[in-house]
Amino acid sequence: MPSLLATTPEAEYAPFVLTGVLLTLIIVYLMSKLGGELSKRLDLPPVLGELVGGVIVGVSALHLIVFPEAGAAATDSLLMTTLQWLGDLDAEAVAHIFTSQSEVISVLAELGVIVLLFEIGLESDLRELGKVGYQAAIVAVVGVVAPFTLGTVGLVVFFHVPIIPAIFAGAALTATSIGITSKVLSELGHLKSTEGQIIVGAAVIDDVLGIIILAVVASLAKTGEVDLVNVVVLIVSATAFLLGSILLGKFFNQSFVAIADKLQTRGALLVPAFTFALAMACLASVIHLEAILGAFAAGLVLDETDKRKELDQQVMPIADILVPIFFVTVGAKANLGVLNPTVPENRAGLVIAAFLLVVAIVGKVVTGWTIFGKPGINRLAVGVGMIPRGEVGLVFAGIGSASGALSAPLEAAIIVMVILTTFLAPPLLQLSLKNQESITPEESDSEEGENAAVPVVK
Amino acid sequence: MPSLLATTPEAEYAPFVLTGVLLTLIIVYLMSKLGGELSKRLDLPPVLGELVGGVIVGVSALHLIVFPEAGAAATDSLLMTTLQWLGDLDAEAVAHIFTSQSEVISVLAELGVIVLLFEIGLESDLRELGKVGYQAAIVAVVGVVAPFTLGTVGLVVFFHVPIIPAIFAGAALTATSIGITSKVLSELGHLKSTEGQIIVGAAVIDDVLGIIILAVVASLAKTGEVDLVNVVVLIVSATAFLLGSILLGKFFNQSFVAIADKLQTRGALLVPAFTFALAMACLASVIHLEAILGAFAAGLVLDETDKRKELDQQVMPIADILVPIFFVTVGAKANLGVLNPTVPENRAGLVIAAFLLVVAIVGKVVTGWTIFGKPGINRLAVGVGMIPRGEVGLVFAGIGSASGALSAPLEAAIIVMVILTTFLAPPLLQLSLKNQESITPEESDSEEGENAAVPVVK
């Protein structure tokens, strides 16, 4: 009989992995609350504080939360050295525990942004989104074309960067972090305003465009030519997925409610809804789209049901627990060391970074002026809302780095651009929305959006 | 400048790990709902259905959810072979993804049982628990001594098992799965009855005793003698932890409420409470107690605050999402193959298993008759509530197996005993509680306990 309980490193180190995850989560929640509350007192969006809180415990400062993807070893992690001391572990054990713990936290962070987009989908309205669909599409396309062209041409002309790395940098400029923007909009109670819906719609379309651009650029860097079949497959599957979700929204609703009504055990509404969100996320990820797009689509579909409010209230605590993991780890992964001008190696990168930052802001802000037929709309806010590159920009930089196409200064410059747009966008967006009467389809919905900033428990 | 975005296997396989986790979670939720609902229709505790649902997708049947700790390879996992086909991956990549995905699911399951015990703590009452404290302590001690003595002596006398493995088997018989018992009690609305509080109290004490026994037995198997210092340290730290929690319950409450009241961002109550639960779980785990004991203590402490109801309502959706992962994976890990009498190797084990099962049931059921000063108490229910060995019993068997002390038939017998007590306990407990008027301290509290079986949203 084969042993049923063979000991593997996994089993032996399991208690330490759990302790490592628990310690990381405790740090994440402490920093997210400290940062968020401080930000709120300073009249800034709380999410900015969560990002800064992440920076403090991350690779830039305290080294409590670091990740092997960024080249960190277990010995770089203050948390791991503490655990090594607590558990009297050898170096090999700590390396194993570090990898496992980091993978768990990374997946929890991804589940966090999945739940965030599910919640944003639940708070968005398919019909309202449809009404601003054309505008959102134009904003997205201009927000891709403008920074890409300006960035690529500028790098080649002014900085004599070769064409392939210039295209990579240009591609990184096209991204929009839907997570950061939608979180700020939600915190400010502007998610349901016309501006908010245009930004969210454009960010979704931007995400799809970004995935297509990434596929083009990656195959260009790898083989020197574009894999057309792959690109066509991506475009077709992305379109089919988005249209399919909208159709599903019309038909699946009622059967979902019927199923949920029949269930008698705990979590009768939440568990099927959450399963549906994960299934859509999984489907999106299998057809090479981003998982968060699937979760957003699932939220849109379930928003059409009459269980919406009840579901919203039950998803909220889950978001409260999972979403901070995402924002704090984004902050923890941002290496602000590349911003230090006293390090000679950084200087070349910082000059390019300054150029990329200008392009990154201008290229997105102009999109606000492409909106037509909406007199009185806050064009600046729409443009500013598209600025944060966030994790999407880092993915571009990461793939560029892996392909070996990027020089060290250019890579650093892209990272600086991503970090600065991510951290500048929340206060800029708040500023551009301040003292404005938002154009909201329904006044009652707008109020609810503002309440979303505090837990609603009746 | 060191590359900030070096590609490691972790980064390269990350999307597949996420897809693997999402697929596993989808299967977990489908099986937990299918099993739970079917169980409910058959008038059985839903948790039994979740366990059986786990068995169906686990190592015993469909091989969708299997774990490397139990000796499974990536090629044994139907989910991994599907992912390999979807992503066109090589064997090495799949092995890496399998390990990562399993670690993530294992940690999520552990977070599930941590949240479950936090919730049970929130629903328990420190004063009520104090009132039954002596009874619970006696039930726990008898429930450890009786099965240990009967089992060890019986194995030596009737089956001529050497003394060290006999002691291991005896130790595995002492465990009580607080998770399974408290979930069934909560589902039946009996958590707050006197019987329920005695069972929960005894299970907590049993857990502490179990950890001490485990330390004794493990050092006995390793060095042939007992490491007295270690045992004394464990007893002192366990006692200090439990008494410290109770003291904390009296003083920390008010400062906790004051902090939560001052917070203005989302999750103002939930995030500090959850952080406290994780910190207590972490502390328990660092001093070599079980993490779930810390979470239970945290629940007890916060139960004393006037935020109790609000918190309870916000913890519920998190429990709905995380707890099923625990029960379904417990089922998935249970290898029912050892029950098959047509396999000749199993027969020797099955005879010992039958003996262990009788000892396991009798040794716990007798504990009900040790209760004094509570006329009219359901003694049978208390005894039956202590029967399930669950994950705690498997930990004993696993450590015994790792030490090399157990023969294959004895190891199989222990596993059979653990599986059968775990699966038999929920229906037996329901049966023994049926048609009884429970003795409840406050009638209103009991009603609330019953409502806990359905999501409470007002």
From TrEMBL, chains A, B:
Keyword Ubl conjugation: no
Protein name per its UniProtKB record: High-affinity Na(+)/H(+) antiporter NhaS3
Domain Cation/H+ exchanger transmembrane: 27-429
Matching Pfam families: Na_H_Exchanger (PF00999)
This protein's encoding gene: nhaS3_3
Keywords: Antiport, Ion transport, Membrane, Sodium, Sodium transport, Transmembrane, Transmembrane helix, Transport
Similarity comment text for this entry: Belongs to the monovalent cation:proton antiporter 2 (CPA2) transporter (TC 2.A.37) family.
Source taxon at top rank: Bacteria
Any one GO BP annotation for this protein: proton transmembrane transport
Residues spanning the signal sequence: none
